[in-house]
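worker-03 picked up job from queue 'complexes'. Input manifest follows; two sequence lines, order preserved.
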Amino acid sequence: MATATYTPIATQTLGSAASTITFSSIPQTYTDLRVVLTNITLSTASSLYMIYNGLTSGYGLINLGSNGSTATSASLSSTGQMPLSYIANLATTIPSTITVDIFSYANSTTFKSCLVTNAQDYNGSGAVEMLSGSKNATTAITSLTLQAGGGGNFNTGTIATLFGI
Amino acid sequence: MPIAGIIASSNQQARASSFYQISQLSPSAVSTVTFSSIPSTYKSLQVRFNLVTTSATFGELQFNSDTSTANYAMHYLSGSGSATSAGGTASGTNGYIKMFQNATVTTYPSVGIIDIIDYANASKNKTVKTLVGANNNTSAGSIEIDSGVWLSTSAITSLTFLVGAGTYTGTITLYGAN
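worker-03 finished. Artifact:
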């Protein structure tokens, strides 16, 4: 018998500016996680970062995207946090949307991999991008932190929803 | 505990979902798995996988055990971490839809989301979209989006997932969406 899934675990809507958004005590009962970030604007044009379990080392990524004129691909390894946008900074006024899929997050025997897609159209600038991310930890993921870059904040109205699949 | 400045709605009650887990497989050191007897009661299918491969290789997707090269075609857009590439194959080349043009990685899981639209329709060809990624925390790996077509009007009742070399271990799950 098929089981209904794609279940919203938690939603956070910023009522005031905050530098981080954290989902903690994530239930270990799903196969994958999906984080959907909408209406994102930052106080300082910057990237946005993801951190598992408070761990601040060992993240890698490969991206593929376009700034509107050129398609590019680049890689990062062993960074302290995982960028969710790499080609273009998130804007301060025009909202962006980012989706993150984290696979087999409750597995405690393999490293963690994720896929990210982002939409950042800023009327003449911005980017569209996909990223393949990794983390060199086998620990099950029990918390996720999203951090605004550049020492800035997420602006009021930013929405983050965590789904279990 | 709500974070200051956040209107938290954590622990919210689950809303009705139209996304269903049909079957989940946990392959261990195999080169092929098949979802068979897929019910025809959904509008589309999604496959999500997290697989560690023993070789840097490509993935293959087949429908209804059809291996005819006349029936598969695809396009891809891929990034290797230093370069972008795009291409495709018309029918007559591969007896499958090929994923991971720049190869999976070993040690770290290669992951993907495969969407198969209108799979139970018996009057049109079948279209597939895949988003796949492989990254071993170095400059090796890939991120790729693929568009594929199965040139058959048969309803899809089975899906087979293979790799070009070696074996894989991990989790592969089939979902139905309405």
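worker-03 released lock.
Residues 7-164 of chain A form a domain with the Jelly Rolls fold (CATH 2.60.120).
The mean pLDDT of chain A is 97.
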